[in-house]
Design a protein that fits this description.
2 copies of one chain form a homodimer. Chain A has 121 residues and is mainly alpha-helical. The first copy, chain A, is built from 5 helices and 3 strands, in the order H-H-E-H-H-E-E-H. The first copy, chain A, has a single domain (8-117), classed as Winged helix-like DNA-binding domain superfamily/Winged helix DNA-binding domain (Arc Repressor Mutant, subunit A, Orthogonal Bundle), CATH 1.10.10. A 3-stranded antiparallel β-sheet of chain A has the order 1-3-2. The model of chain A is unreliable at 1-6 (pLDDT under 50). Chain A binds a DNA duplex (20 and 20 nucleotides) through residues 26, 41-43, 52-59, 74, 78-82.
Chain lengths: 121, 121
DNA sequence: CCGCATCCATTTTGATACTG
DNA sequence: CAGTATCAAAATGGATGCGG
């Protein structure tokens, strides 16, 4: 059964809603997807995700870490190397996120064509 | 192949990024999911999606309509009935979105437990 | 009443500089 | 390098107004 009742994410106060807001946020999906192939360091992530600010990267990562979807690792070198990696739970999530992103990538042209039909010009 | 190069959604200027920002927005996933079972009128949608404002519902719906993912139908009665429905393209998308939402609903408790481990208290 | 558009207060996001 | 502090810009929500 596919969560079609009033509960779950449709309920403003349900905890799942919090998770949704972290994951299906402007940057959440991109970060999760970027980490699919393995750990990445802070600046590597920033460079991979076009347009993200350091502030939002930092903030979104912190949320994902709190949610147990991403793990933060610090190697005590100088300068310290901090890398981020999906947890097993995050890995599950990443599969679904990637499917969504792949579909969007696949259909982007078609959708853009639809846009030009709905917008004047 | 699963879109792992620098192109697509990771490129700030790629059209797919626009679509992602509409779909993976705070309300986009919920609207798409809510419409999965059939057409809904404006207020029905608002009531279904806890916490959404009429303004954001209206705005997000307009984006999804522009993207060709949702169709807007006006019955010329008094008062007019305006209903929203997924297009075939939107239906494809909804499948992926629903998978994501279902996973989040399923794992919400586990994730909340993880949060309490990462946050003081 | 229904489906929005508009105005304004609050929240979120972004650019840039700065620190350990 | 890996962030945080700060301030400006943009997104958001609530209230309200309005034509049908």
């Amino acid at each position: 059964m596919t969560a079609q009742n009033g509960a779950g994410v449709f309920d403003e106060d349900c905890p799942s809603r919090l998770v949704l807001n972290h994951v299906a946020s402007r940057w959440g999906t991109l970060i999760v997807s970027a980490l699919r192939q393995g750990p990445l360091r802070f600046h590597a992530l920033r460079d991979r995700i076009g347009g993200i600010s350091e502030k939002m990267l930092s903030q979104t990562l912190r949320q994902l870490v709190e949610d147990g979807l991403v793990e933060r690792t610090v190697e005590p070198t100088t300068p310290p190397r901090v890398s981020y990696e999906l947890t097993p739970l995050g890995g599950e999530l990443a599969g679904h996120v990637q499917a969504l992103l792949d579909w969007i990538t696949l259909r982007a042209d078609e959708i853009v064509a639809a846009r030009s039909r709905h917008r004047p010009g």
